[in-house]
Amino acid sequence: MPNTVLVTQPLPDQYLARLAEHAELDVLDAGESLSDPALGTRRSACYGVVCTLTDTIDRALLKDMNMLKFVSSVSVGVDHIDVSALSVRGIALGNTPGVLADATADTAFALLLSAARRIAEGDRYIRDGKWTASNRWSPGFFLGKDVSGSTLGIVGLGPVGQAMARRAAGFGMTVASWTPSGRKVPGVCSLSLEALLATSDFVSVHVALADTTRNLINGARIATMKPGAVLINTARGGIVDESAVAAALDDGRLFAAGLDVFEEEPVPADSLLLKHPRVVVVPHIGSATASTRLKMADRAVVNAVAALRGEPMPYCVNPEVYAAL
Ligand code: DGY
């Protein structure tokens, strides 16, 4: 009997077909989730899991998954998974790097432009019937912030941060960065995080969420940002203190914010951020283009098929699990 792979969300048919050549597939229905208590025996029978960032895989969940040999996440971020809990049990974890940088940077730059030039706010203004004969073009009407000629500070210079830097150069921005790895890129000036926050007109966050980056952009750091700056986050919600962002918007320290990701997703309807007119929000759609999602599915299936063949995953987050092979 072939090994069973539990697939938490339906992938496009061609990818499911490729997986099905190597394993029996147990694809969850729309109403089911990996952590459902009712899924107990199906979880314990599975050899592999193909999941997404909406599936939390922690020690408690892993307890009854004694057959599990691999997890392949259709995401580049793996903060939804307890990686060390997998590693101690020799379970390989795959992700999907290298295919979503441009789509995510496009989203970040769209948020930057929208926040700077009040595009979403203007859209609401018209739809709400506020654009009237007495509220219309005047020299001071709907003033935004200049993008060209300003400084963009990039926090995290991985593939998405670098793609953001290329876009900013095209808009005539000065580009600075701080990155935990110390990586340097031509045309991008390296600064300390403190200097970057103090001097950037726009700050865009592109680090992965980890213990070292949780709450990195906290209240104390936001208070040191250049007055009137704009904060963009397309990385993960836990990196930015949301209540500090709301307070900084209220007191005018921040001009605006553009957010694709939130501490809790979906963002609660009563979030202070949603009440602020200068916050542009989108529902975690950084990588949401059809071609990017196909490439992510492809990477995830390549990883899963390698694991099913007993080979190392080509995009493996914890390659130390292969040390004993
Ligand atoms: C990822 O893959 O981690 C992204 O957040 C998906 O949009």
From TrEMBL:
Keyword NAD: yes
InterPro entries: D-isomer_2-hydroxyacid_DH, D-isomer_2_OHA_DH_cat_dom, D-isomer_DH_CS, D-isomer_DH_NAD-bd, NAD(P)-bd_dom_sf
Gene3D superfamilies membership: NAD(P)-binding Rossmann-like Domain
Pfam families (UniProt xref): 2-Hacid_dh, 2-Hacid_dh_C
Domain D-isomer specific 2-hydroxyacid dehydrogenase catalytic, first and last residues per copy: 5-318
Keywords from the named record: NAD, Oxidoreductase
Domain D-isomer specific 2-hydroxyacid dehydrogenase NAD-binding stretches: 109-286
Family recorded in the similarity comment: Belongs to the D-isomer specific 2-hydroxyacid dehydrogenase family.
Listed name of the protein: D-glycerate dehydrogenase
Organism: Candidatus Marimicrobium litorale
